[in-house]
Write a structure and sequence with these properties.
mainly alpha, single chain, 131 residues
Length: 131
């Protein structure tokens, strides 16, 4: 259940940031040329929140998935990716410090690693179910 709750909170924040960017920050983002950056941040934020939600549902319905350290790691990596990738883009879009630029790819690496770890975990659980 922790991933379902986390996903709901992360989705709430993502939808709020999407709306805030489209309405409250519209002029700022347009004048700075960062509208697309904000939209990219929201997109990856929401996509990985949905993935986290699906992971939580899987774990809630499959006891072997619930105990998988690899699946837990995948969810944590996605959360880190949201924080680092989307978070750095949000801040850069509204004039945050330039040193945040190198943080964005680290978040992307968190996303990628999370997906890779998920694949390993799913494979391992598939082998357990067959064996």
């Amino acid at each position: 259940m922790p991933f379902i709750i986390s996903a709901a909170i992360i989705m709430f924040v993502g939808v709020g940031l999407g709306a805030f960017g489209a309405h409250g920050l519209r002029e700022l983002l347009e004048s700075a040329g960062h509208t697309r950056d904000w939209e990219t941040a929201v997109f990856y934020h929401l996509i990985h929140a949905v993935a986290l939600f699906a992971l939580g549902i899987w774990q809630a319905n499959d006891p072997s998935a619930r105990g998988s350290g690899l699946l837990r790691a995948a969810g944590i990596l996605w959360c880190a990716g949201i924080l680092l990738f989307s978070g750095s883009l949000y801040l850069l879009s509204i004039g945050g410090p330039n040193w945040l630029g190198p943080v964005t790819p680290l978040g992307g690496l968190g996303f990628l690693t999370g997906w890779g770890v998920l694949a390993l975990g799913a494979r391992k659980l598939g082998n357990v179910a067959r064996g």
